[in-house]
Design a protein that fits this description.
The complex is a heterodimer of chains A (221) and B (243). With 221 residues, chain A is mainly alpha-helical. Helices cover 83% and strands 0% of the residues of chain A. Chain B contains eight helices and no strands. Chain B has 243 residues and is mostly helical. The chains are: A mainly alpha (221), B mainly alpha (243). Chains A and B meet through helix 7, helix 8 and helix 9 of A and helix 5 and helix 6 of B.
């Protein structure tokens, strides 16, 4: 546990050292919202289903596109080699990486996205529901992202490849997350979707750290 | 026993084994697919609703089955590659991924050719179609990552990790897409859920599936030979063979 916290501190320091990357993804989020508003025309805000869909799309996209920050320069600079030399358990390392990635990049996007919902005048219940759903979805995504970005770090066309690899695996949580938002919007119950998201997150939490460790080991030799 | 298997799976002996069975396998594939096509196109009765158009089933359904079959094979190979670190299993994944990609693409293309006259549209966001499309994307990712490095071993082993992560997800993707599509779409048209298919229509289908599996093994053997040459390009036996 102590090791986990130390690693998190290390990662967070690194993210705050390159704050522009985090701000870039927030700007990217805003751009997607603006582009969907422009593309849909002035009646964009009349169609609330469309707004919910675009906010979801924008948040998932902008979280996925920065996933390559997780192993940004670690392989090239030899940070990972040092971790292995100090026999840091790679499972804990990948958990720490996932958590600190979520705490910086995903959380900032989540906050901006909730603020966007507020701007469009949605009721607080929907925003609270959105907050919990998108948190679970992005937590799941950062777990998947650690494994896959370890695999694509330092390779030809790595960022694009990473995006292609992550999206298919993200489809179930995105389906259930958007269903939950739409259900709340239509005044229905959304606890089933939330339960699914929690279950999916737990499944990946219990399996993916080992996959990430295997991924890091694969890339190191 | 274990040593025997190990020796058989060494790259050199496997290369010569693949070379030896290549020709018989080719004849077997040609004959089986020939019989299957003939009985499917001429002997099987016309469908009472779809007429002769239903005969595309003899390409479409085996390709769709094979797209999943190849993935199952790849999961097995990935497990072997990561646990026992067998080189031949790594080669097996890397060579099978493009074949699986092609089968998935064939299933999708023939499906939409079939869907146009029968459903009136090239594409519906039906559960089966969507999960097949996602499978295509996963295959694409695996091919991409297998070729992303200069060292073929690292690429293949990364592909093995991706295959295993995908294997956790594929059933979940399938069921969640089904749930999403049925909620969104109302009734969907699913072909394989027909409770019974006439025996005279089923037999050509089975023959075609056997032919497709034989074809898969044939192409896999050829691709694996090439990959073995690439892996072992500095080994003595390859040099002797090539000179």
């Amino acid at each position: 546990m102590k090791l986990f916290l130390t690693l998190c501190r290390f990662e967070l320091t690194r993210y705050f050292a390159s704050l522009t990357d985090v701000l870039n993804s927030v700007a990217f989020f805003a751009l997607i919202i603006i582009i969907s508003a422009v593309a849909a025309g002035p009646t964009f805000t009349d169609n609330n289903t469309l707004v919910i869909g675009s906010v979801w799309t924008a948040s998932v996209l902008s979280c996925v596109l920065t996933l390559d920050l997780i192993f940004n320069k670690d392989f090239r600079e030899g940070t990972v080699d040092l971790f292995i030399l100090c026999s840091v358990p790679l499972e804990i390392l990948s958990l720490a990486k996932a958590f600190s990635y979520w705490l910086t990049n995903c959380l900032s996007i989540i906050l901006v996205a909730s603020f966007t919902f507020l701007l469009f005048g949605f009721q607080p219940g929907l925003i609270l529901n959105f907050l919990s759903c998108i948190s679970l979805v992005t937590l799941t995504m950062s777990l998947i992202g650690v494994a896959l970005s370890a695999l694509t770090a330092n390779s030809k066309g790595g960022t694009l490849l990473l995006t292609i690899l992550v999206f298919p695996l993200m489809i179930p949580p995105v389906i259930f997350g958007t269903r939950a938002s739409l259900n709340v919007y239509n005044g229905l119950d959304s606890s089933n979707e939330l339960l699914f998201l929690v279950g999916f997150f737990m499944l990946l939490l219990s399996t993916l750290p080992w996959a990430s460790a295997a991924a890091i080991k694969t890339r190191i030799h | 026993m274990f040593k025997l298997i190990r020796n058989f799976l060494a790259l050199e002996s496997f290369y010569f084994f693949a070379r030896r069975i290549q020709k018989p396998l080719l004849y077997f594939t040609l004959i089986v697919i020939g019989i299957g096509l003939y009985s499917g196109l001429f002997i099987a009765p016309r469908d009472y609703q779809q007429g002769d158009a239903f005969r595309i089933i003899y390409v479409h359904v085996p390709a769709a089955w094979l797209s999943l079959f190849v993935y199952m094979y790849m999961v097995l190979a990935a497990f072997t590659a990561l646990v026992w670190k067998l080189k031949i299993a790594e080669i097996g994944i890397k060579s099978a991924a493009p074949i699986g990609f092609c089968f998935t693409a064939i299933a999708l293309v023939t499906g939409s050719i079939w869907g146009k006259p029968m459903w009136g549209t090239w594409w519906v966001w039906d559960a089966r179609l969507t999960s097949e499309l996602i499978l295509l994307l996963i295959y694409g990712g695996i091919i991409g990552i297998a070729n992303s490095t200069d060292d073929p071993r690292i690429g293949s082993r990364s592909a093995a990790v991706v295959t295993l992560i995908g294997a956790i997800n594929i059933p979940i993707i399938h069921y969640s897409v089904e749930w999403w599509a049925t909620l969104h779409q109302g009734p969907t048209v699913s072909k394989l859920d027909n409770p019974s298919i006439e025996l005279s229509m089923l037999i050509p289908l089975v023959i075609m599936t056997v032919g497709f599996i034989a074809y898969f093994i044939l192409i896999l053997m050829i691709r694996m030979q090439n990959e073995i040459i690439h892996y072992e390009r500095n080994a003595n036996w390859i040099r002797k063979k090539l000179s």
